[in-house]
């Protein structure tokens, strides 16, 4: 009798495992269809399936904790974390001299008599273009800097909505042909006036790889005269800068971002090295979860809150407020 019970238990477990595997394979097929995933070989498909299952497990475990944000399966769920490494190669050297210089720049920009609003979202003012997808090229540094330029072009050209400007020009024309592996937001901002400005995205479209420079100065729509870089100004001053000036390009640590879906990201896990760049487009306060930043990423609308992330403010999460840059204009 005891042996029969053991056999029945074993058969039940085998049945459950078979059902679970069938369910996972069905989800995998649906996932590949949804995101247009095609792999070169059966071995590659199997490897990506393993990453997908690992992502499912991590997401399930995280969401069971009922924290301030949710994770979800997205187009990056078949990617290994190391595939998202790269794209930002700068390690800011903080010093008292650099901080004094940064504060001096802030005083020229920030209107101290203007109380900063409790919340601001430059998307509502038309100063943020559509979300882009950097693809397999780690060009986040270029997207962040071009985003800061787009916010200024909208105001300077007196147009109703920010237009998408060319990121590809920075990849092709800004120096060493390493833009899909690494780049820096200050170096990129320095390069724009040397190139001759930025064209519209439609005139110099993104390809996701570095090519020959095809910049046409006659089609340039905006050119900065210089830049302001900020080191260690802190989150309160960054909020003042965003409110007074507009969207700001920042360097961050992106550890833990891969499966972010919604809510206010708790960034205690992401205080590693600077390895990514995004655009700060605003800030606000949730009545239950507290203060947050609004970040525009370059991982497509399939990621996060339609391409955006809200992340805790006032906790220095992911190094926000440590390293940032904006364009400078003489008139």
Automatic annotation (TrEMBL):
- InterPro entries recorded for this chain? Papain-like_cys_pep_sf, Pept_asp_AS, Peptidase_C1A, Peptidase_C1A_C, Peptidase_C1A_papain-like, Prot_inhib_I29
Which segments constitute the Peptidase C1A papain C-terminal domain? 116-328
Alphabetized UniProt keyword annotations? Disulfide bond, Signal
Q: Which GO terms describe its molecular function?
A: cysteine-type peptidase activity
Signal peptide span? 1-20
Q: Which residues form the Cathepsin propeptide inhibitor domain?
A: 28-84
| SUPFAM superfamilies tied to this protein | Cysteine proteinases
Q: Which CDD domains match?
A: Peptidase_C1A (cd02248)
Task: Give the record's GO biological process terms.
Answer: proteolysis
Q: Which Gene3D superfamilies match?
A: Cysteine proteinases
The UniProt family comment states: Belongs to the peptidase C1 family.
Stated name of the protein: Cathepsin L
- Which organism encodes this protein? Aceria tosichella
Please state the gene responsible for encoding this protein.
Cp1_0
